Amino acid sequence: MGLPGLTPVHFFSHGSTRMLEAETESGNYWAKCGQEALAHNVKGIVMMGAHWACLGDKIEVATNPNPGKSPCPYVTPSLYLDWKPNPDLATAERCISMLKADGFNVGPNPNFDWIHDTFLILIKMFPDFSKCPPVTIVSMNARFDPHYHVKVGATLRPLRKEGYLLIGTGGAVHNLYRNAWTDMILYRESLGQERPPEAWALEFRQATEDVVTRNRGPDLRKAMIRLMQHPAYRQAQATDDHFMPAMFAAGAAGDLEDRAHANVLAAETWELINMCNSQFTFGSYQASADTSRKMLAKPHKVASPAIAVAASA
């Protein structure tokens, strides 16, 4: 099967390392997305994770031809040690050229080893590493400017028209300081919800779903940025690193052409009481260029005033 128009974009909440071993709705969805990518002959994958950021105004792209993998605690080691990365050096150089042409201070990193925020997702998507498409990993910038990371996604968005799948991996609600860690440390168990999540976690989780599913195109980019001003944002995100991949995804899926395509919350897993691993997909493989042109000619229905107020609060 070929690629009709744009590939989708994913924002995956990778959660704790236990998500690699546990059977979850989110893990099942990652596997489904991997199967769809293979069925549609995806050319390669470009990812931004939450655990690699560069200082100053710089951004880097991984160019290690034989990357190792960082330790992945609380899981059976064979689940990740035996899985071999498939780096895409040619696309890495191309991403550097595209970002440089758009004004970014960008360069290669030939020593970067992969971290669980990316390889955990890829292992679930492609358990047989020999079938994993070539992968390019792009760093964040440690100033965590949402506009900067939206622009990174927007700059690399043209790759979607060539059959590349763009993925951001971070967390919808990801505050490690407010998680309940006892069961994880003692029993390697992260899914036992002995009490409900706290109100701030539920509130921000709902605001994120509303913004993603009720906004499209440039409206999506603006609404995602406004989420960082939400009253519950700092409780839901103790640091900004796990939300920047969402900005990358919004940039990659927030063009005028993207107004034609729905964004969905496809799966979700709560861990450690207060960590919400929401899995979002922007667009779909079935979206054709002809459909895009037809829908762009129609007025776009924006989010309701209530949602707009919540997102900008």
UniProtKB/TrEMBL annotation:
The keyword Metal-binding is annotated on this UniProt entry: yes
Domain Extradiol ring-cleavage dioxygenase class III enzyme subunit B: 10-255
InterPro entries: Extradiol_dOase_DODA, Xdiol_dOase_suB
Alphabetized UniProt keyword annotations: Dioxygenase, Metal-binding, Oxidoreductase, Zinc
Cofactor: Zn(2+)
Top-rank lineage group of the source organism: Eukaryota
GO molecular function annotations of the record: ferrous iron binding; oxidoreductase activity, acting on single donors with incorporation of molecular oxygen, incorporation of two atoms of oxygen; zinc ion binding
Entry keyword annotation includes Oxidoreductase: yes
Protein family: Belongs to the DODA-type extradiol aromatic ring-opening dioxygenase family.
Protein name: 4,5-DOPA dioxygenase extradiol
